[in-house]
Write a structure and sequence with these properties.
There is one protein chain. The chain is α/β, with parallel strands linked by helices. Helices cover 40% and strands 18% of the residues. The strands form 3 sheets. The chain has an 8-stranded mixed β-sheet with strand order 5-6-2-7-1-8-9-12, sandwiched between helices. Strands 3-4 form a two-stranded antiparallel sheet. The radius of gyration is 24 Å and the shape is globular.
Length: 290
């Protein structure tokens, strides 16, 4: 019997099985150690996390995020930045959507950033907002076909190698989803709060909830939810139609214990002004749509 056991242990597949069983036993002992699941999760997440460091000159960082693309996140980020600037605050706008940068078009900006004597990129400026985007560094129609590590390197440069000056607020237009970029930014810089943008549509709300929960898990305060494209009003008869559903984002906010920060209708003026690079907060500051 002893010889049989020795031969079995010398077999490569058997040794692999033993190693797996030993690992499983250690895992069971870890999960049975008596501490709560939440405490164990925090310990695991804390291992190897980068230390958060502030961006020089930037007092507060607000991220505008959504779980799903196409819900008006970038439009909201642009108009939020302009709204803050209208209150005599120094505001910057960072386009963190490396694969689909929208800020250059929406802010009516073209060109490449100049370099300072310190070899930092100087943001482009319009409407009093300093802006930085990957769209300033590549051709307008050029696809960005990068793997994750290259995207992370680009985000680091956009955060750290830019002469932001002295800002009261830096608004970051996040890419859709809950992936590497969101996690990297949340773990590398202190964020004052996150704004979640969603339409009332059920499919969009599922991803909006995931986005809110992601920020909570990385200890970023969620300031609230903006319900976008909430209702369409016929310009002729004034009849209102809830194309994407009614009050879905408001119900999600109630479920998550969050505030509803805004209720924005689906209106042609908002879309047209964004496409022209004349955001509605600037072009129609007294518009009832905002």
């Amino acid at each position: 019997m002893a010889q049989l056991c020795g031969a079995w242990r010398r077999c490569p597949s058997a040794r692999h099985m033993v190693a797996n069983l030993e690992f499983a036993a250690r895992l069971v002992r870890f999960w049975s150690s008596g501490s709560s699941v939440q405490e164990r999760q925090k310990r695991l997440m804390a291992r190897g996390l980068p230390k958060q460091t502030v961006i020089p000159g930037v007092k507060q960082v607000i991220v505008v995020a959504s779980g799903k693309g196409g819900v008006g996140k970038s439009t909201t980020a642009v108009n939020l930045a302009l709204g803050l600037a209208a209150n005599d605050l120094a505001v910057g706008l960072l386009d963190a959507d490396v694969y689909g940068p929208s800020i250059p078009s929406m802010m009516n900006l073209r060109g490449n950033p100049e370099l300072t004597d310190s070899n930092l990129m100087r943001p482009l400026v319009n409407f009093g907002i300093v802006c930085m985007s990957m769209g300033f560094l590549v051709e307008e129609a050029a696809p960005i076909v990068w793997r994750g590590l290259m995207v992370m390197s680009a985000i680091e440069r956009l955060l750290r190698q830019v002469d932001w000056g002295q800002l009261d607020y830096l608004v970051i237009d996040m890419p859709p989803g809950t992936g590497d970029v969101q996690l990297s930014i949340s773990q590398n810089i202190p964020i004052s709060g996150a704004v979640i943008v969603s339409t009332p549509q059920d499919i969009a709300l599922l991803d909006a909830e995931r986005a809110a929960e992601m920020f909570r898990k990385v200890n970023v305060p969620v300031l609230g939810i903006v319900q976008n494209m909430s209702v369409f009003q016929c310009p002729k008869c004034k009849h209102e139609t809830h194309i994407f559903g009614a009050d879905g984002a408001k119900e999600l906010a109630t479920k998550l214990g969050l505030d509803v920060l805004g209720d924005i209708p689906l209106h042609i003026n908002i879309r047209e002004m964004s496409d022209k690079g004349q955001p509605i907060v600037v072009s129609h500051p007294d518009s009832p749509e905002i």
